[in-house]
Design goal:
heterodimer; A: five-stranded mixed beta sheet; four-stranded antiparallel beta sheet; disordered N terminus; B: about 180 residues; mainly beta
Chain lengths: ~240, ~180
């Protein structure tokens, strides 16, 4: 199983049902934006096997979203931490994670967000962290609010934090959303539910973690992320050509 | 064995992480032929996609402190994106493939947007390159007429840089050849 240097191995295709399909009928914005022609499967070449690296010098970490110029944002303070690994359980070290989210009232600090909820001068909603040598990351924020969207009658997005990750190759790039446990909006949300496999959906939900929670300060949530692994499973080796 | 985390849409508010300077891959002082890479993103009705995040990655020139190899650009109200980068050269081909022909110069493209539950991947090759004829990935595209949807055309100059244009059509007539990577 152990292969010391796999850097020239192709990345594995997604496990069945673990990723959403482009055509998601319940999510209206997909209707005119999903491809209708078959996708071309291409081999992984030097282009796909490598990817960008980000230097903290060029992209300074923003690990505290919970205040601006020392002034606290409104809302429930939260600590979010987790580990980024690949599908073989190996840590993904020193990779950049970009984060963005709505404020506690459910409004983004974005000109196109016209939801009638207050902006918070002490909350910008952008974060950026790098994993350490073991793939661990951590940031401080406030619990994002739910907000309405016009996908269907009385549609509300569950509380969520947007994540953008890169990993070792351009094809390990991942943009996703982290949700919160017990959110009654999750079963109603077409975006969350566009992932076919229930276990894969559940892995988008952070765990409340009392160990991570700091007394008299902030609630802790743990959200681990898995990026594509390298190397083919035995099943694929016979079929790739 | 763990399974890769599911993708979710980037949504309409991703500009909180946009940082427009990321559209200029030459900003750290890279050497080479500077070019503009631009185009329009349209949907199945031919309407501009004005909230897309377009990203490019190129393996050549090799990424370094002076050249990130990676760029990100938001589309404007007309659906237009615009990068400044260094024109890539050829890179090695597909390991194990017959002849191991080198790959013609190309950019890898990922498109994220509201309504895209995961990235759409494609490439841009450059019209007129001799190596396009033998490129092992371009040659996989059938019917060959669809290859035109991933070959950028030179279209004048901006600020002394040659402009390469490739429109990206998410759906419908002239739909871009998207790739499963």
């Amino acid at each position: 199983m152990t292969q010391p240097n796999q850097d020239d191995q192709p990345f594995r295709p997604p496990a069945p049902g673990s990723q959403p399909e482009y055509d998601a009928p319940d999510y209206g914005s997909t209707h005119k934006r999903h491809p209708t022609q078959a996708l071309l499967h291409i081999p992984h070449t030097v282009t796909e096997l490598n990817g960008p690296r980000f230097l903290p010098r060029h992209f300074p970490p923003l690990t505290d979203l919970s205040r601006v110029d020392g002034r606290d944002a409104a809302g429930q303070r939260i600590i979010v931490a987790g580990r980024v690994t690949d599908e073989d359980g190996r840590p993904v070290p020193e990779t950049m994670i970009e984060l963005w989210q709505a404020n506690a009232a459910g409004r983004y600090n974005h000109e196109r967000d016209q939801h009638d909820a207050p902006l918070d001068p002490n909350f910008k909603g952008e974060g950026r962290v790098f994993t350490d040598g073991e793939g661990n990351y951590r940031f401080l924020s406030i619990l994002p609010g739910a907000y309405p969207w016009r996908n269907h009658h009385n549609a509300w997005r569950p509380n969520h934090i947007h994540y953008s990750l890169f990993g070792p190759g351009f094809v390990t790039r991942l943009v996703t959303q982290m949700y919160f446990p017990g959110d009654p909006l999750l079963p109603l949300d077409p975006i969350f539910n566009c992932v076919p496999d229930a276990a894969a959906r559940d892995r988008l939900i952070a765990r409340f973690d009392l160990e991570l929670t700091e007394p008299e300060w902030a609630l802790g949530y743990r959200f681990d992320i898995v990026l594509r692994g390298r190397g083919m499973t035995p099943f694929e080796e016979g079929g790739l050509h | 064995m763990p399974i890769a985390t599911a993708s979710q849409t980037i949504g309409p508010y991703w500009h909180l992480i946009e940082h427009p300077e990321m559209a200029d891959l030459t900003r750290f002082g890279a050497d080479g032929e500077r070019i503009v890479f631009t185009g329009r993103v349209t949907d199945g009705d031919g309407l501009p996609v004005s909230d897309a995040c377009v990203e490019i990655w190129q393996a050549q020139p090799e990424a370094s402190e002076a050249f990130p190899g990676y760029g990100r650009a938001g589309t404007d109200v007309q659906g237009m994106f615009r990068f400044v980068t260094i024109k890539p050269g050829p890179v090695p081909g597909v390991r194990g493939a017959a002849g191991n022909a080198p790959q013609a110069p190309h950019l890898s493209i990922a498109i994220f947007a509201r309504g895209l539950v995961k990235a759409l991947h494609t490439r841009a090759w450059f019209g007129g390159e001799r190596l396009n004829e033998s490129d092992p990935v371009l040659g996989l595209i059938e019917p060959p007429a669809r290859r035109a949807t991933v070959i950028a055309r030179q279209d004048g100059q901006q600020a002394g840089m040659p402009v390469w244009r490739l429109n990206l059509r998410l759906q419908g007539d002239g739909e871009t050849l998207f790739m499963e990577v």
